[in-house]
Design brief:
Elements (H helix, E strand, L loop, with lengths): L2 E5 L3 H13 L4 E5 L12 H5 L14 H6 L4 E3 L3 E6 L2 E6 L2 E6 L2 E4 L3 E3 L12 E2 L4 H13 L2 E5 L3 H12 L3 E6 L10 H13 L3 E4 L3 E5 L6 E4 L3 E3 L2 E4 L3 E3 L2 H6 L22 E3 L6 E2 L6 E2 L4 H15 L13 E5 L2 E7 L2 H6 L4 E9 L10 E9 L4 E8 L2 H13 L4 H6 L14 H9 L4
Parallel strand pairs: 1-2, 1-7, 2-3, 7-18, 9-16, 10-11, 10-16, 11-12
Antiparallel strand pairs: 4-5, 5-6, 8-17, 13-14, 14-15, 19-20, 21-22, 22-25, 23-24, 24-25
């Protein structure tokens, strides 16, 4: 019997394991997960802390028991793989250590939060929020906290800041870069920063945190510019691939230390696959390898790996880096390259930025959306950013255009639906394409 071991029970790992069992029910598939939960939604953690999601279990898509009983997958939670080699792993849990053999291995170890080695970082009350256990700790600590410091202006940092404000906490947000959301251009991000300030977030941009002070528990954040009284600190400065097991196996590493994989998600060892946040992927816009840790990518990579292991050959075509979030009343979406990223790649760009209504003025319920489109000098679309109302349909439409390597003319002529209930006759995305066409 073919033995498959999956290390990591997040979306990528469980997607792979489930697909393998569907195609090859006779395979023995075993999953090891360090936390208490498998198949859970990390992206929902800020909303659990903020009270929008009432129960932690609501973030779990399927229980361990479901996978064991319904899909016949051996699932071990609270179990860490402490050693690994060709054809075997050593797992450790409350029952001690045990050796398991494998014929095929799937690495889905994900990413781990970056914790900078600065003074006082180990004080109580300084936490990261990556797992559901982290979410539970954060919620308990927030009940007693009055002043919360969020370090990092990425998606998680902004979402956590919003939810702390809704809990009535004095909230400070520290970002060492000049603007929030580094993958959104500064001429767009100011809209987000204005919303944060309007809602009561004390925003500190271009301000690097250099330490923390307190007896046992954190009491102050120290930056290059000042000191701030804080009861709770959320470290949200980013993540990096959790590649320790990959290194033990001697696998080839790629972008930012992620495991190098081919289009079938195979690693440099033909019997080992890597999926999700541990693995690099292919950027359709640039044609280069990239590393973008997103849940949608993780699920699809898991499906591809499981299909290939199960005998159904599928290629993972790559990504365009589409992401969306909500910051209070602003929806924020981006896909492809930003103008700043394009310049770093020495790509000569043509851009436009428009503000438009999302529905006709005579029909209630619409709002405003600001759209920025980026193209190269030949007219190929490179990316776009959307801030305002009704972002998702326009963002997804542009992502599909980027996925097919489309042009500015395609953005203008794309046959988008029209009804005053949903959009004006000139959809904002089409209108942005029309304005951008003036440059060609």
């Amino acid at each position: 019997m073919t033995k498959v071991i999956v290390i990591g029970g997040g979306p990528a790992g469980m997607s792979a394991a489930s697909r393998i069992k569907r195609l090859k029910p006779e395979y023995n598939v075993t999953v090891f997960e360090k936390s208490n939960y498998v198949s859970y939604g990390q992206c929902g953690i800020p909303y659990y802390v903020g009270g929008i999601v009432k129960n932690l279990e609501d973030l779990v898509h399927y229980s361990k028991e479901y996978f064991i009983n319904k899909r016949k997958i051996n699932v071990f939670t609270r179990t860490e793989v402490v050693d690994i080699g060709e054809g075997y792993v050593i797992s450790k849990n409350d029952g001690g250590e045990k050796k398991f053999n494998w014929d095929i291995l799937v690495l889905a170890t994900g990413a781990r939060p970056i914790v900078p080695p600065i003074k006082g970082i180990n004080l109580e009350g300084i936490i990261t929020v990556r797992t559901l256990e982290d979410a539970e700790i954060c919620k308990k600590l927030s009940l007693k906290a009055e002043n919360v410091g969020v370090v990092g202006g990425g998606y998680i940092g902004l979402e956590m800041a919003e939810n702390f404000i809704k809990l009535g906490k004095k909230t400070y947000l520290f970002e060492m870069l000049p603007h929030v959301l580094p993958n959104i251009d500064s001429d767009m991000s100011w809209l987000i920063e204005s919303e944060l300030k309007k809602r009561g977030v004390e925003l500190h941009l271009s301000e690097k945190v250099i330490g923390f002070e307190g007896e046992k528990k954190v009491e102050k954040i120290i930056t290059e510019k000042g000191e701030y009284k804080i009861d709770l600190v959320i470290m949200a400065v980013g993540v990096r691939p959790d590649n320790s097991l990959a290194k033990k196996l001697g696998l080839k590493l790629g972008v930012k230390g992620a495991v190098s994989v081919d289009e079938y998600t195979r690693t440099s060892n033909e019997n080992v696959y890597a999926v999700g946040d541990i693995a690099e992927t292919f950027d359709i816009v640039t044609g280069n390898k990239t590393w973008v840790p997103l849940a949608t990518t993780a699920n699809k990579m898991g499906y591809v790996a499981g299909s290939n292991i199960g005998g159904k050959s599928i290629k993972f075509p790559g990504i365009v880096g589409t992401a969306i979030t909500k910051i209070f009343d602003l929806e924020v979406g981006r896909t492809g390259l930003s103008e700043e990223q394009s310049k770093m790649l020495n790509i000569e760009t043509v851009t436009t930025k428009i503000k438009a209504k999302t529905r006709p003025t005579y029909y209630p319920g619409g709002g405003e959306i600001t759209i920025k489109l980026i193209a190269d000098k030949e007219g190929r679309l490179l990316g776009g950013q959307f801030i305002g109302r009704d972002v998702l349909p326009r963002l997804n439409a542009l992502a599909s255009l980027l996925f097919k390597k489309s042009t500015v003319w395609d953005a203008f002529f794309d046959d988008l639906a029209y009804s005053p209930v949903f959009a004006p006759v000139w959809d904002p995305l089409v209108a942005a394409g029309r304005v951008l066409l003036r440059n060609f």
